[in-house]
Amino acid sequence: MDIYFAPMQGVTGWPFRLTHLKHYGGVDRYYMPFISVHQSRSMKGGEKRDMDPSHNEMGRMVPQLLPAGAEDTLIYMDMIRSAGYGEVSLNLGCPARTVVTKGKGAGMLADTGRLDEFLEHLFTGMERVCNGGLSSDERSLRVTVKTRVGMNDTDQIGELIRIYNRYPIAEVQVHARLGKDAYNGVPDWEAFGRFYEKSTHPVCYNGDIRSMEDFQKLLEEFPDLPAVMIGRGLVADPMLAEKIRSGMQSDSMLTEQERLIHFHDDICSAWYECYGQEHAAICRMLEIWDYLGASFPGCERKIRKIRKARSLQTYRQLAGEVLRQEYRPGYLTGSLQ
Ligand SMILES: Cc1cc2nc3c(=O)[nH]c(=O)nc-3n(C[C@H](O)[C@H](O)[C@H](O)COP(=O)(O)O)c2cc1C
């Protein structure tokens, strides 16, 4: 089974991805935070830097688009293919209100007729825009879709699956929640099960895998699952994929904690090098603490102090203190059915 690092805007930018890859194993693919498709048909500086091939391990790191109109989306897909990537992920799951109200992200699932038209246009247009004049060997942009199980309810789940089945999608990655539920409540395994059974494409599970136990429950329920995608669980416990691969818990907590400390120090330096500004690097590190903090039970006050750090030196000192406290990786467990 493949294990993917889920895209997380503000958290898993290229300095984080490369540092994770350097320190930990077990992740087959890292999905990049989304690049927004605009009518301007251009990318922002930060988006360009994030998908710059020199900042990514090609073949293992995959760009993601937040699609808008099909014609505009095709132009971005061509940029991605021209940069040398073999896969693009389409984000049909972002629940942010500003995104959904424009009919993007999970908002695309609310109107299945429009979704069908979009995909029809996209896959027909790929021949013309992305693959025009290329040999069949070069026409290798795989399109994967990251979806929710619906926007407002699961009534149209059958229709959603039928639509995806109509197109040459390489994999359907399902965050097993409704768009309207954002990150609340528990993932809906029954709804995911319908994708697992009825999709003609390979299906990847995503949602609340935070520990080996969660992963084992998932496997019991869906034994032939080809892939699992993990986000917050891997930020809280960066070794989780490695543990899943080797099928066991870490045998030495001390070593695991030392590795975490080195990993943390390296990401901190990588973000600082990326921005050249202490404040920006601290902001990125604080996003990580939203999840990593759960692995240090009882450190809530100390973590609140980290949030007030104004220099990198103070940040490193305060974070270093917490990182040496009792470490219970992936502490936030137990919500899965
Ligand atoms: C802070 C944050 C940023 C996210 N950014 C993205 C994104 O850019 N693209 C995307 O498809 N999903 C994004 N997601 C959703 C995650 O990829 C994933 O689907 C979700 O967190 C559920 O998986 P998990 O429980 O393993 O974290 C984001 C989630 C969070 C919490």
Question: Would you summarize the structure shown here?
Answer:
This protein is an alpha/beta fold and 337 residues long. It contains 14 helices and eight strands.
What's the helix and strand layout?
Elements (H helix, E strand, L loop, with lengths): L1 E4 L8 H10 L5 E8 L8 H7 L9 E6 L3 H13 L4 E6 L4 H4 L11 H18 L12 E7 L8 H9 L5 E5 L13 H10 L4 E4 L5 H10 L5 E4 L1 H5 L3 H7 L6 H23 L2 H15 L7 H7 L5 H12 L14
Parallel strand pairs: 1-2, 1-8, 2-3, 3-4, 4-5, 5-6, 6-7, 7-8
Helix pairs in contact: 1-11, 3-5, 5-6, 6-7, 11-12, 13-14
The protein binds flavin mononucleotide.
Describe this structure in words.
- The protein has helices at about 15-25, 45-50, 70-80, 95-100, 110-130, 155-165, 190-200, 210-220, 230-235, 240-245, 255-275, 280-290, 300-305, 310-325; strands spanning about 1-5, 30-35, 60-65, 85-90, 140-150, 170-175, 205, 225-230.
- It is an alpha/beta fold.
- It folds into two domains: about 1-245, TIM Barrel, CATH 3.20.20; about 255-325.
- An eight-stranded parallel beta barrel has the order 1-2-3-4-5-6-7-8.
- The site of flavin mononucleotide (FMN) has 21 residues, from strand 2 and helix 9.
* Mean pLDDT rating: 93
CATH third-level topology of the largest domain: TIM Barrel
Shape: globular
Pattern of helices and strands: EHEHEHEHHEHEHEHEHHHHHH
Oligomer class? single chain
Second rung of CATH, namely the architecture of the largest domain = Alpha-Beta Barrel
What is the distance, rounded to the nearest whole angstrom, between the alpha carbons of the first and last residues? 21 Å
Q: Stretches where pLDDT falls below 50 for ≥5 residues?
A: none
Order of strands in the sheet with most strands? 1-2-3-4-5-6-7-8
Rounded Rg: 20 Å
| CATH level-1 class of the largest domain | Alpha Beta
What name goes with the CATH superfamily of the largest domain? Aldolase class I
Q: What is the count of DSSP helices, taking H or I runs of 4+ residues? A: 14
Bound molecules: flavin mononucleotide
Q: Report the portion of residues in β strands.
A: 5-15%
| Number of discrete domains | 2
The helix/strand class is: alpha/beta
